[in-house]
Amino acid sequence: MTAETITAATSTPATTPPTTTAATAAVSPGLIDDPAAHRVLTGDRPTGPLHLGHYFGTLRNRVRLQDQGVELFVVVADYQVITDRDLADRLAEHTENLVLDYLAAGLDPERATIFAHSAVPALNQLLLPFLSLVSVAELSRNPTVKDEIAHSRQSAVSGLMFTYPVHQAADILFCKADLVPVGQDQLPHLEVARTVARRFNERYPHADGGAVFPHPQALLSDAPMLLGTDGGKMSKSRGNAIPLGATEDETARIIRGARTDADRRIGYDPVGRPEVAGLVLLAALCQDRAPEAVAEEIGDRGAAALKRTVTESVNEHLRPMRARRADLAADRGHLRQVLRDGAERANAVADATLTEVREVMGAI
Ligand code: TRP
């Protein structure tokens, strides 16, 4: 791993609420020299296809970590789907397609443990002691939860909405992960996981004084948050995303519909012209160049030229991944087997952690 590709959350980004400052401990220097000393966990909700925001935000970093020899767990957070909607619509299909996106992006199920958390009972049982460690006030202050409530499709806010960050702490801590690659919006949840770990260790030390859990750190990619085609954060629930598995024609159509402005001179001004800057950034990430250079090249040829550049860059960048995806998609049985194997490995780890937790708690 190099400093340019992945950095621990060493400073609080402007978009991150101040409550996350404590998640900013620097990554241990051992990461580069000693990948085997780390365990990484990260994951996604199976609510629909992964998009370019996921790819540049976290997916490609996961693959890099895996390829470095870091032990990697990837959770398909199926229970989290019902935080902001009543029904987990087409859950099995979304779950398999998520695995498809992972494998197409380069995750290797021989090396990475890919599992659904609903298939790991001991992980879920950790939620109960963990919930006892956080206050209702802390749960209701969580800025990401507040944002999700604002975009929720439900008329009433469920208890799960407030408590799922603690469930996410169980996702992370059941396997004692110390590094968690996430997008910036997840930093408040990382902070919950760190708080839970710290309080659990304080309240329930081993007889020899040793701690049960590590304090997990966020690994932020260097990619700034990708904007969707409407100028807002790229998000599958906001309908403004470019799915990794879209065809080249679909990609062209989505980008053609993106919001821009009337100024023919293309520049990179994320604050003043967020929609145009978002498109420029997308092309720049795909081309692995600076956004200013991409904008300069388009110059005063206007939004249509910008969109053509973005479409070509995205399609070219995703072509090998999409080809792998098409091959893998033909064998749904394989995708299900990957999940079964992952659940088996995750269960063994979760059972051991739960046994340890019950021990230090006095066999509760
Ligand atoms: N909440 C994350 C999201 O919506 C998904 C997730 C669930 C996750 N459990 C996790 C991410 C554990 C990192 C670690 O994207």
Provide the descriptors you would attach to this structure in a database record.
single chain, mainly alpha, Rossmann fold, Tyrosyl-Transfer RNA Synthetase, 2 domains, 3-stranded mixed β-sheet, 49% helix, globular, binds tryptophan
Describe this structure in words.
The protein is mainly alpha-helical and about 375 residues long. The chain folds into 2 domains: about 20-225 and about 330-360, Rossmann fold, CATH 3.40.50.620; about 245-330, Tyrosyl-Transfer RNA Synthetase, CATH 1.10.240. About 50% of the residues lie in helices and about 10% in strands. The strands form 2 sheets. The protein has a 3-stranded mixed sheet. Helix 3 (about 90-105) crosses helix 14 (about 330-360). Residues about 1-5 and about 10-30 have low confidence and may be disordered. Tryptophan (TRP) binds next to strand 2 and helix 8.
Gyration radius, to the nearest Å?
Answer: 21 Å
Order of helices and strands: EHEHEHEHHHHHEHEHHHHH
**What is the CATH domain class of the largest domain?**
Alpha Beta
Task: Using the alpha-carbon principal axes, give the shape.
Answer: globular
Write the layout of secondary structure elements.
Blueprint (H helix, E strand, L loop, with lengths): L5 E3 L21 H4 L5 E6 L7 H17 L2 E6 L14 H15 L6 E5 L4 H5 L1 H5 L4 H6 L1 H8 L8 H15 L5 E3 L5 H17 L13 E5 L26 H9 L17 H14 L3 H8 L3 H28 L2 H29 L4
The protein binds tryptophan.
